[in-house]
Amino acid sequence: MKESKLREGDLVVVVGCTRGKKGVTDRHRILAEVMAVGKMDLFVRSEGREKIFQVPAAKCCLVDDEKASVDERIIVPEIGDLVLSMVDRFSKVERKMGVLIEISDVPGSIKMARILKGETTERVAFSSLIVLE
Known about the structure:
Elements: E1 11-20, E2 23-37, E3 41-46, E4 52-56, E5 60-62, E6 82-89, E7 92-104, E8 112-117, E9 120-125, E10 129-131
């Protein structure tokens, strides 16, 4: 086992799991701030809460958020773009991919889009789209 190279104030992803007869059945992750560093273990505070707990440093991965650009914006889809719509409805993820063929912006209503999937079209919320190509 190596000693921890993490430092106080670092942002980490803490990983845990659910284990059953068949082994690991699920992985769990939370974002946390390192509050104190021991030889092999850490005290961390989970993001968005005030709860401080102990965790082995080996269960943590450093998050280097300094490289992330905070000024970037989502690309606004245009007619003819290959797009993907993804929404979470009743805990089920719906994915729809196609070519954007229509944008409908009716005052007082949600901005909608129509995408062409093969020979059929689908209506989706414009805000659910990202550009693929």
